[in-house]
C-alpha cells in the first residue's frame, strides 16, 4: 500500500517538469533530424535539421559526439508560417563542412532550448570511407654506395586495416619484418640508382604512393695525404671510395688559404673564402697543385664523381708550402761617392720574397781588387769607407736579399758615381697652343648659334598657337599642348542630353557618364558580330590619352522609356568599383536617326588578353598549346565568383554569365563583363523578362527557360556552367545535345558530366549550382569562399606567357594581343518581332586565331518567353 502514493508522486513531478506552467507537455519540435553522410575526404558535406516552434524562434546549436561545436559553419533560416511575428515559425539550420577530414567523423545532433527544457534531435552520422590516404610517402634522396638507409611510408583508412606493400623498381619486395614497423623499409645498401614506392591496401582498394628516386653516389674518398711540396707546388694522393656499378669519371680538389690563427675546422662544410678548385681525370688518383703561395698554410679536400653525381667531400686536410728564396733582386740600387765614402741605397725587391726577409747581402769590388761580401741585415742603406791614399777606379756594387732558404738573385753591378748637387728645375709656364684657343672659340660660337635658332623657332610657335610646350608636373617632360579651332566642350554634351528629351533628374545623374563623341578616336576593328562591333579606340581626356575599347551597337532604341532604361543602367554601372567587375568609362551617342533615337556607344577599358573563352580555346587548340594548371583555372573561377558577389550585393542580375563575357586584364585577373542583359532589381528579388528576346540556352537556368524569371540564383546556375567551361578549357556545354533538346534534357534530371582531371570538390560545387530548387543553390559569397579555400590548398603555379591572336579579318600574318573589352557572345539572329531590344545577349566576338563553328562555339539560343525548346527551323548557330 505504501508504493502507490510514491509512484503517483513521481509521475506528478515528471509531469510538472514537462509542463512547468501548468499547461500540457510540449511535444518534440523537430520535424527533420540530420541525415547520414558517408563519403571520401575533402568533399563538402551538409547536414540539415528543421523544427516548428510557436512564438520567438530559438537559436539552434549543433552537437558533435554530444559536444557543442563552437565554430561551426552553420546557417539558420527562419520561415514565417503565419501573418505576424507571434505565429508559428519554421526554423531550418544547415551545417556545412567544407572539406571532410577524419576529425569530422562522428554523430551530429541539433539542440534548442524552449522555455526551460532542452530538445535534442535524432542523431545523424558522418563517416569516411574510401581508398587509403597517405600520411607520409617515400621521399627522393641520395645515398652513398653500399650504405644502409631507411624509407618511410604511412597510410590510413577508413576502412581499416591498411596494409603496406613496398616495391623496388616496380617489383614487390618480400620482406621479413621481424621487429621493424611495417611503414619503415630498411635497405642494407644499393650499388645502383633505384626507385621505391609503396602500395596501401584496404577493403576499398589500393592506393599507390609517389615514386621516390634513390640516387647512388660514390662514397667519400679517404687517405688524403701530401707526398711532396715545393714553395709554390703541392702534390697529394688519395684513395677513392666505392661507387657501385658506376665508374668514377673525375675528382675535384679544393685548396683554400688559411688565415694565420684561424684555420679551418675539420669537417667544416664550406670554406671561408673562394677556394682554388682543380678538376682531374682519374685514375691515377693524384694531383699537383700549382701557383700557390710559398710559406703559407692551406687546407685541401677532395671529392670524386660518377655519372650519378659527386661524392661527399673529405674532411679538410691542413698542409703548408715551404719557404723559398726571393724571386727578384732589390730595386733602385744606387752608389754615390762623397769624398772618402761611398753611400749605397736600395729598396725591397718587387718580386715575391717566398718567405720571411732576413736581410740583405752587399758585394763590391774594384779594378784589380778582390770582391768584398757584407751582411747588411734589414737596413736598406750602407756607407763604405774608401782608401785615402789612392782612388778606387771602376768600383761596382750589387745587392741581394735572402731568406731562411737562401739568397735571391743579385742586382746588376752599379758603378760608383761622384756626388753632384742637384738643383730644382724651374716650373714651366702655363701655355696652350694657339690652335686650342681657336678651336674652343669656334665650338662656343656654334653652340650660341644653335641655341638662338631654337629659341626663335619656339617663339614663332608661341606666337602662332600660344603656349605650346609645357612641362608635366610628374615627369618633368615637355608635352605638346595646342588649341584646336573648334571646341567640343561640355556644351556639346549638354546639347546632346537636351535633344534626348529625358527627365531633369536623369540629366543630372548623367553629367559624369556622358562622353563627348568627338573626344573618342576609333581605330581598327577587334571583332564584329550580329549585334555590334568592338573597336580599338583612344579617349582624349584633359591631360592624357587613354586606350579604350569602344562597343558600337547595331540596335535601335524605339521609345523614350527604353532610352531612359538604358541610361539609368549606365549610371548604375558607372558606380561599379571592384577589381573583378568591368567598369564603365562612359557612354556617347552616334548620329541621331530621323525616326528614332541615336545609337549608343559604350566605352570600356581595353583588356590586354581578351575574353576568357578565346583564351581557354587558344591554350588548348593553338599552334603552340599552353598548359593551364589547375591553380590558374581555380583562380579564374574565384575571380568570377568575387565579381558576381559584388554585383549581387548591388542587386544586379547579369542574365548572361559565361566565359565569353569574362575578360582577362594584363594581370591575368578575370573581370565580369558584358552587362547588356543586366537588370537592376529595384523591388523584390526577381526580374521577369517582358519581351521576346533570344537567349543563350545552354547557360540559362531551368526555371528561366520555363518562366522567363531571373534571380541571383539563376546567375548561380550560369556560374556553374561557366566553371564547367573553365575546367574543360573552353569546350561547349552539353556536347551532343541540341539546343532544342536542352529544356527536356534538364527536366529529366540530366546535368553536365564531370570533366576529365577536374577535382571532385570543384565538380561538387558545380552540381550544387544546378540544383532544381533555386533556394538550394549556394550564394556567390559561399562559392567565392569555397573556391578561395580550394585555391589555398593547391601549390602556387607559374602563369603562362602572353597569348597572341592573329587578326584574320585584315588578312595579315602579324600577331597581335587580343584586347576587346566587351563580351564575346556567340552571334545570334535578332528576333524579327523585337527589333528595338536594348543591349541584348549577343555581343561581339573578337577576331581571333580561330573561326568558331557549331562544333566549338556556343550554340544557338532559345526565345526566352517559351517554356519549350526552339523548333529546328528557328535556331541561329554561332
**Tally of extended strands?**
54
What is the tally of helical segments? 12
Question: What is the third-level CATH name, the topology of the largest domain?
Answer: Transferase(Phosphotransferase), domain 1
Based on Cα principal axes, name the global outline: flat
The CATH superfamily of the largest domain turns out to be: Transferase(Phosphotransferase) domain 1
**Could you list the spans in which at least 5 consecutive residues all have pLDDT below 50?**
1-24, 260-267, 463-492, 676-692, 800-878
Percentage of β-strand residues: 25-35%
Mean pLDDT across all residues, rounded?
76
The N- and C-terminal alpha carbons lie at a distance of 93 Å
CATH class of the largest domain: Mainly Alpha
In CATH, the architecture of the largest domain is Orthogonal Bundle
Radius of gyration: 46 Å
Helix percent reads 10-25%
Describe the structure.
- The protein is α+β, with helices and mostly antiparallel strands and 878 residues long.
- It folds into 5 domains: 24-128, Immunoglobulins (Immunoglobulin-like, Sandwich); 133-216, Immunoglobulin-like, CATH 2.60.40; 218-320, Immunoglobulin-like, CATH 2.60.40; 331-418, Immunoglobulin-like, CATH 2.60.40.10; 608-870, Transferase(Phosphotransferase), domain 1.
- The chain is 18% helix and 31% strand.
- The protein is built from 12 helices and 54 strands.
- The strands form 16 sheets. Strands 2, 4, 5, 8, 9 and 10 form a 6-stranded mixed β-sheet that branches. Strands 12, 15, 16, 18, 19 and 20 form a 6-stranded mixed β-sheet that branches. Strands 23, 24, 26, 27 and 28 form a 5-stranded antiparallel β-sheet that branches.
- A hairpin with a 5-residue loop joins strand 46 (662-664) and strand 47.
Amino acid at each position: 500500500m505504501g508504493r502507490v502514493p510514491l509512484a503517483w508522486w513521481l509521475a506528478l513531478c515528471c509531469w510538472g517538469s514537462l509542463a512547468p506552467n501548468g499547461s500540457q507537455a510540449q511535444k518534440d519540435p523537430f520535424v527533420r533530424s540530420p541525415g547520414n553522410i558517408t563519403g571520401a575526404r575533402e568533399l563538402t558535406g551538409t547536414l540539415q535539421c528543421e523544427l516548428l516552434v510557436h512564438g520567438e524562434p530559438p537559436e539552434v546549436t549543433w552537437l558533435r559526439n554530444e559536444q557543442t561545436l563552437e565554430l561551426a559553419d552553420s546557417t539558420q533560416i527562419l520561415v514565417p508560417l503565419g501573418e505576424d511575428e507571434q505565429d508559428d515559425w519554421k526554423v531550418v539550420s544547415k551545417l556545412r563542412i567544407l572539406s571532410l577530414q577524419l576529425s569530422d567523423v562522428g554523430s551530429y545532433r541539433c539542440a534548442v532550448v524552449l522555455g526551460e527544457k532542452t530538445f535534442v534531435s535524432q542523431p545523424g552520422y558522418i563517416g569516411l570511407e574510401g581508398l587509403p590516404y597517405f600520411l607520409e610517402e617515400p621521399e627522393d634522396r641520395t645515398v652513398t654506395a653500399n650504405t644502409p638507409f631507411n624509407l618511410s611510408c604511412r597510410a590510413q583508412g577508413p576502412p581499416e586495416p591498411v596494409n603496406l606493400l613496398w616495391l623496388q623498381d616496380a617489383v614487390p619486395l618480400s620482406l621479413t619484418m621481424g621487429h621493424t614497423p611495417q611503414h619503415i623499409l630498411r635497405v642494407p645498401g644499393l650499388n645502383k640508382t633505384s626507385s621505391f614506392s609503396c602500395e596501401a591496401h584496404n577493403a576499398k582498394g589500393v592506393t599507390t604512393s609517389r615514386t621516390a628516386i634513390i640516387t647512388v653516389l660514390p662514397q667519400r674518398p679517404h687517405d688524403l695525404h701530401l707526398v711532396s711540396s715545393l714553395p709554390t707546388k703541392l702534390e697529394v694522393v688519395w684513395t677513392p671510395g666505392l661507387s657501385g656499378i658506376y665508374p668514377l669519371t673525375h675528382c675535384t680538389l679544393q685548396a683554400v688559404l688559411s688565415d694565420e690563427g684561424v684555420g679551418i675546422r675539420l669537417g667544416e662544410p664550406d670554406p671561408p673564402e673562394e677556394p682554388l678548385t682543380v678538376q682531374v681525370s682519374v685514375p691515377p688518383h693524384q694531383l699537383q697543385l700549382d701557383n700557390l703561395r710559398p710559406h703559407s698554410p692551406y687546407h685541401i679536400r677532395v671529392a670524386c664523381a660518377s655519372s650519378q653525381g659527386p661524392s661527399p667531400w673529405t674532411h679538410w686536410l691542413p698542409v703548408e708550402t715551404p719557404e723559398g728564396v726571393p724571386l727578384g733582386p732589390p730595386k733602385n740600387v744606387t752608389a754615390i761617392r762623397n769624398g772618402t765614402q761611398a753611400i749605397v741605397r736600395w729598396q725591397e725587391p718587387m718580386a715575391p720574397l717566398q718567405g720571411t726577409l732576413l736581410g740583405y747581402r752587399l758585394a763590391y769590388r774594384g779594378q784589380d781588387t778582390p770582391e768584398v761580401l757584407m751582411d747588411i741585415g734589414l737596413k736598406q742603406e750602407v756607407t763604405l769607407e774608401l782608401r785615402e791614399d789612392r782612388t778606387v777606379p771602376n768600383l761596382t756594387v750589387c745587392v741581394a736579399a735572402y731568406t731562411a732558404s737562401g739568397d735571391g738573385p743579385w742586382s746588376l753591378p752599379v758603378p760608383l758615381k761622384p756626388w753632384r748637387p742637384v738643383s730644382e728645375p724651374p716650373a714651366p709656364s702655363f701655355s696652350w697652343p694657339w690652335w686650342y684657343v681657336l678651336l674652343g672659340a669656334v665650338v662656343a660660337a656654334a653652340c650660341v648659334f644653335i641655341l638662338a635658332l631654337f629659341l626663335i623657332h619656339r617663339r614663332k610657335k608661341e606666337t602662332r598657337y600660344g603656349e605650346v610646350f609645357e612641362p608635366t608636373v610628374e615627369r618633368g617632360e615637355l608635352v605638346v599642348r595646342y588649341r584646336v579651332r573648334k571646341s567640343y566642350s561640355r556644351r556639346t554634351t549638354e546639347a546632346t542630353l537636351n535633344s534626348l528629351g529625358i527627365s531633369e533628374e536623369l540629366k543630372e545623374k548623367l553629367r559624369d557618364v556622358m562622353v563627348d563623341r568627338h573626344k573618342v578616336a576609333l581605330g581598327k576593328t577587334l571583332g564584329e558580330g550580329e549585334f555590334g562591333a568592338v573597336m580599338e579606340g583612344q579617349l582624349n581626356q584633359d591631360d592624357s590619352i587613354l586606350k579604350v575599347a569602344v562597343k558600337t551597337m547595331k540596335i535601335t532604341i524605339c521609345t523614350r522609356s527604353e532610352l531612359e532604361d538604358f541610361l539609368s543602367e549606365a549610371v548604375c554601372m558607372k558606380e561599379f568599383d571592384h577589381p573583378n567587375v568591368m567598369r564603365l568609362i562612359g557612354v556617347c551617342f552616334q548620329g541621331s536617326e530621323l525616326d528614332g533615337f541615336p545609337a549608343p556607344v559604350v566605352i570600356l577599358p581595353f583588356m590586354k588578353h581578351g575574353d576568357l573563352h578565346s583564351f581557354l580555346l587558344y591554350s588548348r587548340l593553338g599552334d603552340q598549346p599552353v598548359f593551364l594548371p589547375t591553380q590558374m583555372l581555380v583562380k579564374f573561377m574565384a575571380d568570377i565568383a568575387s565579381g558576381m558577389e559584388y554585383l549581387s550585393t548591388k542587386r544586379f542580375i547579369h542574365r548572361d554569365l559565361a566565359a565569353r563575357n569574362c575578360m582577362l586584364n594584363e594581370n591575368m585577373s578575370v573581370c565580369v563583363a558584358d552587362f547588356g542583359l543586366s537588370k537592376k532589381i529595384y523591388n523584390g528579388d526577381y526580374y521577369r523578362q517582358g519581351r521576346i528576346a533570344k537567349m543563350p540556352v545552354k547557360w540559362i537556368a531551368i526555371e528561366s527557360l520555363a518562366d522567363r524569371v531571373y534571380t541571383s540564383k539563376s546567375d548561380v546556375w550560369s556560374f556553374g556552367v561557366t566553371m564547367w567551361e573553365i575546367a574543360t578549357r573552353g569546350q561547349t556545354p552539353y556536347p551532343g545535345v541540341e539546343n532544342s533538346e536542352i529544356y527536356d534534357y534538364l527536366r529529366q534530371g540530366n546535368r553536365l558530366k564531370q570533366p576529365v582531371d577536374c577535382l571532385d570538390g570543384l565538380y561538387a560545387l558545380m552540381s550544387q549550382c544546378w540544383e532544381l530548387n533555386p533556394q538550394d543553390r549556394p550564394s556567390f559569397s559561399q562559392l567565392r569562399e569555397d573556391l578561395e579555400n580550394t585555391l589555398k590548398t593547391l601549390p602556387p603555379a607559374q602563369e603562362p606567357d602572353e597569348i597572341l591572336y592573329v587578326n584574320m579579318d585584315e588578312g595579315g600574318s602579324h600577331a597581335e594581343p587580343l584586347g576587346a573589352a566587351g563580351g564575346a557572345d556567340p552571334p545570334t539572329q535578332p528576333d524579327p518581332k523585337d527589333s528595338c531590344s536594348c543591349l541584348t545577349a549577343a555581343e561581339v566576338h573578337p577576331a581571333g586565331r580561330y573561326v568558331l563553328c557549331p562544333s566549338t562555339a556556343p550554340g544557338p539560343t532559345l526565345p526566352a518567353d517559351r517554356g519549350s525548346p526552339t523548333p529546328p527551323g528557328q535556331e541561329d548557330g554561332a
